[in-house]
């Protein structure tokens, strides 16, 4: 069978089942041969037991990657969790409302030759106010224009005064491309993830001949104007009592050695700021978070722990229950009963959070529920971790050790209602950076990393506040050109 050309879903399903059964037979044979080999080599029973457990774990993980579900969502069979109410039945797919689109009425009339009655041959007259109506969403192609600005000159008959009409505002003196053009390029690159070369090809199809260097010049100039607002955005995030932090790879092109640059993100409820730095060591962590006085929600990466060390450290760490949950999901195939118990308890923690309103309005209720409901669940999770017998080095052992190593950070939410259960909101804020990295392949220069960090901070903060990124960027640029303070996205959103 040629899998690369077969399109029948049923044939592919049967082939997958056969492959899975064959895979299980081969796995069983590998374990038997390994046991026989260890016995011939004189290995002791404990070594044999550990080796077989390790093989079973590896085989289970590979089977899960090949044939298992990719989602982290669990079924509803975990214990201590209230059942999820069923979704209402879908009533069909109707037309989606389009409140933002302008409405253009197009009246269709009969040709003169068709305005004849089919019964008597008389002339048909328009029936006032009567139409057959329908809707259609149409596409109006984008159009570039070469505007010639003619500034009228004025003079007095006395010859002592000449005045010229003011010029339109420009990105810089002598700029050939408009402010709206530059904002459009920046939005397509950092919001819609279109590389500059791709934009060049698209513009060429639309009649504009331009080079990618010219487009870069526009967004680099915008970045200079917006720099003060970017620094203010970073300060705003670091002024919040609880923030999320994470880092993801960001390649710097043009080097022979592998790129170690990373995009560091710090996230508040109403803003996100990025810094792209050469590495992910404690030195870079201090550049991003050094001196921060508050709680940082993060994963178990060791550099974050370095920030909270020492008697004078003002940074406290909260750790992510979603990461702990993933560790137990990894062990689920090999240890279904043990993991079912702890996954049910973790799900119970999330069920408690779902009962509270998000933000400061739900803090008092959240504090009470966490003390009365979540704390007993935490005690049961701790009891599970200390009493469950595990094979050293197994996936279940690793999951328990991972959880135990971050226990103080995992339980901080019990005493502070502002601390979330997980760092998922920070990971969501990184989606734009990750998609952009996939499309742009990183940056070509150090300046490119600075410009990318600035625009991603503005764009993702605007989206977080429910603003249109392009409209917000234009507003910010116009304020900068007028010499005014740049209003940050959360401030614009608060103004309505």
Automatic annotation (TrEMBL):
<dbReference type="InterPro" id="IPR052344">
    <property type="entry name" value="Transposase-related"/>
</dbReference>
<dbReference type="Pfam" id="PF03050">
    <property type="entry name" value="DDE_Tnp_IS66"/>
</dbReference>
<dbReference type="InterPro" id="IPR024474">
    <property type="entry name" value="Znf_dom_IS66"/>
</dbReference>
<protein>
    <submittedName>
        <fullName>IS66 family transposase</fullName>
    </submittedName>
</protein>
<feature type="domain" description="Transposase IS66 central">
    <location>
        <begin position="177"/>
        <end position="450"/>
    </location>
</feature>
<feature type="domain" description="Transposase IS66 zinc-finger binding">
    <location>
        <begin position="114"/>
        <end position="158"/>
    </location>
</feature>
<feature type="region of interest" description="Disordered">
    <location>
        <begin position="66"/>
        <end position="98"/>
    </location>
</feature>
<dbReference type="Pfam" id="PF13005">
    <property type="entry name" value="zf-IS66"/>
</dbReference>
<dbReference type="InterPro" id="IPR004291">
    <property type="entry name" value="Transposase_IS66_central"/>
</dbReference>
<feature type="compositionally biased region" description="Basic and acidic residues">
    <location>
        <begin position="67"/>
        <end position="77"/>
    </location>
</feature>
